[in-house]
Amino acid sequence: MNIGSKNKKRVVLPSRPNPPTVDQILEDISRAAPSDPVFSILEQTGQRSSQPSDSDVDLRFQQCRRYLELSERLQEARDQLLRQREELRVAGEQLDRDVAEVKGQPL
């Protein structure tokens, strides 16, 4: 048991400032010099500060389309499997009735 921790006073921190608005951020970026350390860090880490190229956008668009197509095909396959499962359940019940009927008949 640490008795000394009960005697510590809580430090009241000042409230956080409001986050900058989009306009303030854009203004800050536009005023920054190309030699600003933030831009050099982005280059060193392989991140680009410019907009993605058209080929990147096209690639992402094609990936999204393919994902949606596959998702739709999976949904259709799921629905088909549910129908087939129900058909098998009904066929199994009919088979059970037929087997019970045959067992009741003399050979």
UniProtKB/TrEMBL annotation:
Pfam families: UPF0449. Residues 64-98 form a coiled coil. Keywords: Coiled coil. Transmembrane segments: none annotated. Residues 1-21 are annotated as: Disordered. It comes from the Eukaryota. Residues 1-11 have a biased composition (Basic residues). Belongs to the UPF0449 family. PANTHER family: UPF0449 PROTEIN C19ORF25. This is Uncharacterized protein. It comes from Monopterus albus (Swamp eel). The lineage of its organism: Eukaryota, Metazoa, Chordata, Craniata, Vertebrata.
